[in-house]
């Protein structure tokens, strides 16, 4: 029997690599929620498809996504929480250059629908090395680290 979490992750990446926002969105229930790395919140399959197709046709058109660690927690017989460490390369910057790679953690809540597992919720969070929170100021939000290396925290 295949691992439903790994199968979902593989299908998500395959849809991304095919640049197919509809296929990606079809991995979600019709009224799913998806929050991206900057807090944009799409509240249904159609919005998820539209937003991803736009991105996959433009600034993610040359990107590659690969999965690292996948961690799954059963939330009952018909629900799974899945965390995926993912690496994104090939994003196109506004000036047309290729941006540096970045790493994110995607969180999915999957729900069993017969033989299929569909996402009811997703959240994507950038990993910012050397930061422990965000700090809002006059020039926007930026990563911040309050830890004192001399005190070991």
The end-to-end span amounts to: 44 Å
Radius of gyration computed on alpha carbons: 17 Å
Summing up helix and strand content along with how strands pair, one would put the structural category as alpha+beta
**Strand-residue proportion:** 35-45%
Largest sheet: 6 strands, mixed
| Tally of strands | 8
What would you say this structure looks like, in words?
- It is built from three helices and eight strands.
- By secondary structure, the chain is of the alpha+beta class.
- Strands 2-1-6-5-4-3 form a six-stranded mixed beta sheet. It has a two-stranded antiparallel ribbon with strand order 7-8.
- The chain is globular and about 55 Å long.
- The model has no long low-confidence stretch (mean pLDDT 95).
Produce a short descriptive summary:
The protein is 21% helix and 42% strand. The chain is an alpha+beta fold and 153 residues long.
What are the SSEs and their pairings?
Elements: H1 4-17, H2 21-25, E1 28-35, E2 41-42, H3 45-57, E3 64-74, E4 79-89, E5 102-113, E6 116-126, E7 133-137, E8 140-144
List key phrases describing it:
153 residues, alpha+beta, two-stranded antiparallel ribbon, 3 helices, 8 strands
